Amino acid sequence: MAAATQGLVQTSPENNPHVPKRTTVKALVESPALTSIPSNYSYTRYPNESDASDPDEKIPTIDFSLLTSRDPLQRSKVIQDLNKACQDWGFFMLVNHGVPESLLKAVLDGCKEFFNLPMEEKMKFADKDIWKPIRFGTGVDVKVEKFFTWRDFLKVFVHPQFHFLNEPKGFSEVSGEYCKRTREVARELLLAISEALGLEENYIEKAMDLESGFQLFAANLYPRCPQPELVMGIPAHTDHGLLTFLIENEIGGLQIEHNGKWFRVNPLPNSFLVNTADHLQVLSNGKYKSIRHRAVVNNKDTRISIAVPHGPSLDTVVSPAPKLVESESHPAAYMPMKYKDYLNLQLDGKPCLDHNQLTFT
């Protein structure tokens, strides 16, 4: 950590009474006492963490309208493209998904209004209990990371029961509609992914009990940072669940690990950035990969992103699909685990996929 901040005048909670010991990043940035990055936000990048996008490579694009096409040839072609995207990248941009652009804008605007609420309003939802259905916080738990991250967040459980805030006005309604529409798109994608894996079309739907599937609404605020090279918005991680949908306010910051390098993502307008998550890797017996990704910040603009993971029901025991397990040539690579137990491990800072993976001698 010292190498990252060498030569800087530290404004840490320990030596400056004007900077609270634990505060939101938004309040920290707005503090007139802030002259440099507090030491407990300092993040050291290692050589293999440098940005190294290949300009000739592009994240695959999937046209959702072709998945619902009545033309069997068009549907077959896009399912092949989807299969390749899930294997080669673990990420794809979903276009023509049918969710109105006005709804995407409205839910992003609602997030901005929430983060602009007075501190006392937001702090009503500050809680360390990960199973609180509405939770506001900043950074990450120090059990998971040894430094604070440059973000504030709102996390809400929105399915199978819908929870939400009463303020700001209208935020609950637009978010409820947004979550409903994305859930419909995710279920259609998972029907196609079942086919792409050579399973029955509704295998994932039934095996993962998607009717009671766990859906989380996670809004992230990344304020502009005077020294962005010294902090991290969210460190490298993978997502729990089956698929995660991401939208943002046109301020880039997401990077994904691809072929051993960090690839900067520039989503198409009005698209969802979708990634295959941990439980799709387990269900596919490793055919699809849950790819590490991270969020970086900048010194010019505040970024807002909304990630919506779509998972199995909390009581579902997830294991490789039997059809994708061949006893000798391709045995099961993951042991069965209840989704809720997996979340408890992940949120306690454990490397879940490693913990869940079987080893063979």
UniProtKB/TrEMBL annotation:
Belongs to the iron/ascorbate-dependent oxidoreductase family. Residues 37-47 have a biased composition (Polar residues). Residues 1-22, 37-57 are annotated as: Disordered. InterPro entries: DIOX_N, IPNS-like_FE2OG_OXY, IPNS-like_sf, Oxoglu/Fe-dep_dioxygenase_dom, Plant_2OG-oxidoreductases. GO terms for molecular function: metal ion binding; oxidoreductase activity, acting on paired donors, with incorporation or reduction of molecular oxygen. This is Fe2OG dioxygenase domain-containing protein. It comes from the Eukaryota. The keyword Oxidoreductase applies.
